[in-house]
Amino acid sequence: MKQLIVLLLLVTAAAPAWAQPARVPVNDPPPSNTNTKPTTQPVTTPTTVNTNVELTKYSDPQGRFTIGYPGNWTFNDKAESAVLQITSPKENDADEFRQNLNLQIEDMSGKSTTVDQYVKTNMDAVKGLIKGYSEVSSMFFNRNGSRAYEVVYKGKYGEMTYDIKIRQLFTIVNSKAYILTYVSKADERDAFETTANRIFNSFKY
Fold first, then answer.
1. DSSP E strands: which ranges in 71-187?
2. φ, ψ for residue 34 (rounded to 5)?
3. What is the DSSP letter of 33?
4. What's the gap between Cα 91 and its chain centre?
């Protein structure tokens, strides 16, 4: 199923000029008839998810970052709406939701703002856009020698009939703001969570 990037526009009338859109990748909306239960359950082929696949290292041509990704995931560094997108394979034949990551980078040259301010502006707007927003965890910490913020939250976006779980990493380094986002389906076993952790940990700037 084709993946879409849904732009969560975080610029509001009262927002500072440096506030930019955050991108949360999700799937196409389901067909209109998926709100009704089928009379028979689809037959699925179980898939064994290998979380120990060696990561392929990607180095940004501009020298801004490096990141690792499994070879059996789809990697796209040509997307118009993000610096890169990494999408999981299907878990089985009936899998209609693909876990996915994206990275956005904003040029902060000439803009005097802290990570704390950047996070507050972004997250204040997200809370107004995500229906039933529920924070799972959040913390500021030192990452690669720079102050960073990581948050995990759940909720619905747009016309979704199910909750998604969003994990985001924010940091500002060398006049560039980085937002790394991972999206999975909430309240459902995430077979790729371990792999997503490895990808997050491999991200260097």
1. 74-76, 84-87, 100-107, 131-143, 146-156, 164-173, 176-185
2. -80, -5
3. G
4. 19
pLDDT of residue 49: 60
How many Å apart are CA 56 and CA 146, to the nearest integer?
25
List the structure tokens of 87. 């999408």
Residues in the chain: 205
* Contact criterion met (CB below 8 Å) for 144 and 201: no
- Quote the pLDDT of residue 139: 98
- How many Cβ atoms sit within 10 Å of the Cβ of residue 76? 13
Beta strands 100-107; 84-87: pairing state: antiparallel
User: Where does residue 34 rank: exposed (0-12), middle (13-18), buried (19+ CB within 10 A)?
Assistant: exposed
Model confidence over 10-58: pLDDT tens digits? 222 223 333 344 444 443 333 333 344 444 444 434 445 656 779 999 9
Strand partners, 164: 155, 185
Decide which of 32 and 179 is more confident.
Answer: 179
- CA 54 to each of CA 47, 85, 185, 195, 196: distance values in angstroms, whole numbers, following the listed order: 18, 18, 24, 10, 13
Query: For 46, phi and psi rounded to 5 degrees?
Result: -60, 140
Checking if the pLDDT of 77 tops 80, the result is yes
Quote the pTM value: 0.77
Q: Which long-range contacts link 166-170 to residues 24+ away (Cβ below 8 Å)?
A: 166/24, 166/130, 167/196, 167/200, 168/22, 169/143, 169/200, 169/203, 170/115, 170/118, 170/119, 170/122
